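Annotated sample (chain length 448).
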Amino acid sequence: MLNNLYKRLKLTPPKILTLGFACIILIGCILLHLPIASQNGEEIDWLSALFTATSATCVTGLVVVDTGTTFSLFGQIVILSLIQIGGLGFMTFATLIALIIGKKISLKERLLIQAALNVVSPQGVVKLVKTVLLFTLVNEGAGALLLSIRFAFEMPISKAIYYGIFHSISNFNNAGFDLMGGFQSLTGYVNDPLVTLVISSLIILGGIGFIVVHDFIEYKTFSKFSLHSKVVLCTTGALVVLGTLFIFLLEFHNPKTLQPLSTSGKILGSIFQSVTSRTAGASTVNIPDLTDSTVFLLIILMFIGASPGSTGGGIKTTTFVTLLGAAWSQIKGKEDVVFFRQRLVPTMIYKALTVAISSLLLVIVVTMILSITETGKNFLVLLFEATSAFGTVGLSMGLTPNLTSAGKIIIALTMFIGRLGPLTIAIALAHKDSKELYRHPKGRFMIG
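Output written by the structure step:
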């Protein structure tokens, strides 16, 4: 019956994923609007509830009201549930339920899982889902344990455990929601190696993609990894190292950020901001106090984002490195783009170009609209906000809580498109259309 409904409505996997995320956001919005969801027992307005539900489901972390002081335990658990479902994908949880009750996974459902996890083939997707769930449980559990031990030194044990669980799940799913209050994020822990390194590790592990995780578990040796995993690991490592180095140099003498810190504090602060700006959203330094050069660097990192099949957003590391490889091949006068002695097929380059250009246009359009709705705001602040929403990052220069109603709607839509847009485009392009019976004659015009 369900398959017949799909056929009648002509629902492709990308459309089903889009509708699924929209339904989850709607349910979250209704729950967060309930009086029981707020600490003062009063309903928060519908727009703020919708914005928060969208941010949580799209694992972004941008907030118009402070999570720690506005929402009750019920509201915070709703947010945490949305983060977990949004990070791993509702099809992953649907598969888990089906496996628990002993239901057989149909081909249609396997295709949906393939689309949700952004893998090439539906073959082995159920096994991949099991790996994803186990990997998530182990890492979130380990992160929660370590953070709970650290928080127990400054708060009651029950509260420390809850804080440990919340921040572990939030950061593994690259959401960046926090309970510290006052929109301060994790700025109080900039010098703390345990909190900084544990959360940084959770962000990286959640952002490398589950295909890489599968290769780690299956092969264990880098030389046996797939080309995808090799490219993701090398690109991720390079971006983290280069980001850390540039942030350290650019903020070293900034009296509002790194200058007052010890050498180890400067290094920890630089590492954390390099990691989190890729798509997480937590911060250990006050973002509005950063220099303009650092802000622009963060915009670039946010636009690149995490890796395919992960909990993060952005155009993805593989898209970025594919475009770099294509440009380098043109400069060197070579026809092929080669990574690790393997040649990329032209369709991959076209897809990377499509994702990058469509994403860039989205950020440009959103920034332009924000410049109209948020009059009097600095352009760099608007560009930062638009890129953060698109990349589902969650970092803000203080604009989010002060957005107009129109601005909130625009940013909410951007978060939704950013979570599904580039992924949906890539999936749509992956489907083979019927072959054309003719080809147009070749044409040339000047480039560059």
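Annotation: The chain has a mean pLDDT of 86.
Annotation: The beta strands are 338-339, 342-343.
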